[in-house]
Write a structure and sequence with these properties.
It comes from Ceratitis capitata. InterPro entries: PFD_beta-like (IPR002777), Prefoldin (IPR009053). This is (Mediterranean fruit fly) hypothetical protein. Heterohexamer of two PFD-alpha type and four PFD-beta type subunits. By secondary structure, this protein is mainly α. The chain has a domain of 79 residues: Helix Hairpins. 81% of the residues lie in helices and 8% in strands. It has a two-stranded antiparallel ribbon with strand order 1-2. A hairpin with a 2-residue loop joins β1 and β2.
Length: 126
């Protein structure tokens, strides 16, 4: 009995620690996702703001600490590529979050099974 209690206590402690770590990871993923969404929104607003520019308009693309002269089509294609990159990053972050939720649920189910086995063992011994 004492052995089973220690095993159960250890499992609860491990699950609690894992749940805290998983919650922290999920919060970090949410923050990263929010940052990527803000970046995507910035690119969309820039694209909307430049949509009425003529093709011969001089535009400058930010490259590090300098600006490079480019044409409007190149700038638009660059903005679209950045938006697609943001979409892929958001999708990847959501998949990571789903995996964390699934692993936490699996661990909780395993703990429930352990508690159920304990109850069954106690009932059989009485």
């Amino acid at each position: 009995m004492a052995q089973m209690d220690m095993e159960l206590k250890k499992a609860f402690t491990e699950m609690q620690i894992n749940k805290i770590e998983t919650t922290k990871k999920m919060n970090m993923i949410d923050m990263k996702c929010s940052m990527v969404k803000n970046g995507k929104q910035k690119y969309e607003l820039t694209e909307k703001g430049t949509s009425d520019l003529k093709d011969d308009t001089r535009v400058y693309l930010s490259v590090g600490r300098m600006f490079v002269l480019t044409d409007v089509d190149h700038m638009r294609s660059d903005l679209k590529a950045k938006q697609e990159k943001c979409d892929k990053a958001i999708e990847l972050l959501n998949k990571k979050k789903e995996f964390l939720v699934k692993s936490l649920k699996d661990q909780e189910d395993g703990l429930r099974e352990l508690v159920q086995q304990r109850k069954e063992a106690d009932a059989a011994s009485k």
